[in-house]
Amino acid sequence: MIRYGILGAARIARAFAREKPGNAEIAAIASRDIEKAKDFAREFQIPTAYGSYEELVQDKTIDAVYISLPHHMHHEYTIRCADVGKHVLCEKPATLSVKEMVEMDAACKKNGVLFMEAFMYRFLPVHRRVKELVDKGKIGKLRYINFNFCIDLKSQVLGTFRGEKEAGGGALYDLGVYGINLSRYMTGREPEVLESRIHRETPDSMDELTFVTLRLGNVISRIACSYTTFAYSYTVSGDKGVIHVPTGNTGKMIENKLIFTPQGDYSEDIEIFAAMSGYRAQAEYFAECIEKGEVPILNGEDSVRQLRVVEAVLEKEKPLF
Description:
This protein is of the alpha/beta class. Helices cover 34% and strands 28% of the residues. A 9-stranded mixed β-sheet has the order 14-13-12-11-7-10-9-8-15. Strand 9 (209-216) and strand 10 (219-226) form a beta hairpin. Helix 5 (98-110) runs antiparallel to helix 10 (300-315).
């Protein structure tokens, strides 16, 4: 059985620890605050708590590490884990640049360990079903994707790394990356960035509101991400119909659904998906990859391609207002 260790005791780590994988054990938690680590361990029945990240990295009984640290720390700790032979499940965004991701991927390959970027939403059945329907031609030829991931979080992220541009804070790295990933997933293509409109209070502050237009072959994708508004859904449109997913990419244990509307008809075909944990499914999938020695779908090379798009968005940035 694969033994996971968790680096960082932030909110996302709690979501991961709460839904325990059936084929793996969460064996250790590390925080820079030992009391915080101990409280976390007690709450989630984790055997070992460490007061430093390095202690967990050096724990020889740990097979894989779930990295839930601030975005700008992913690069350093992925390489540290790889260098001591630990597999890495790293929260999105994998890191902040293509250069860093190339180095992370090289370190994992050099040391014979697996790397996976933790896009939890990919393990929810609703999104897999949308992909299946698109591939089967249910909506005809896919032409347009409209993705919204906007949550009014500005007051909550200020004073944290998510509010700091240099630490990879802001709506694009935190929320917009889902839209980029989903667009790549649905089309099987790598995008060209046509437009990038971003609002920042100052040039050195985080992006609060970002609109991106991508072209993926014959498909156009419009992505909106924000810390100052609320919108939480996506739509894929073709020449024979449209599929709408009103629950977006939530990590919460809620019922999901998709709504198919055929072209020229106002009827709706609704499919309901029972509440389940994408975090658990993700952890189980990665553990299975480790056991079988199989490269995961969201591997280091895929993360390099993902970050090329993010970099292009930032390179083409123009003021929104």
